[in-house]
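FORM 12-B: Structure-to-Sequence Request
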């Protein structure tokens, strides 16, 4: 019976650590930009877009394809930076401990 309470405590601890990690990731903001820096995307650690900056000359109908291309570049850049930042913060031993390994 006592072992069951221990497992409940472990689950609670994991939930608490997960909430803390989510809060930390939400506070992390990464910028990604197109190759020519005409589009900048800011996203948090949970992959939510915080802001998008677009140079005014890309906002015409004639430049729509250019805008789409640069948005894709900026999102790709932000995702790469986010992955690097997350990998830097990952402690493999802590993750193993959380998983009971």
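FORM 12-B RESPONSE
SEQUENCE OUT:
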């Amino acid at each position: 019976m006592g072992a069951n309470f221990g497992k409940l405590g472990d689950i609670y601890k994991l939930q608490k650590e997960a909430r803390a990690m989510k809060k930390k990731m939400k506070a992390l903001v990464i910028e990604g930009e197109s190759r020519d820096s005409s589009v900048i995307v800011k996203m948090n650690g949970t992959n939510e877009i915080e802001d998008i900056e677009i140079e005014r000359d890309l906002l015409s109908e004639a430049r729509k394809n250019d805008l789409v291309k640069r948005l894709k570049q900026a999102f790709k850049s932000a995702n790469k930076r986010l992955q690097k930042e997350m990998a830097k913060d990952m402690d493999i031993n802590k993750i193993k401990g959380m998983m009971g390994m």
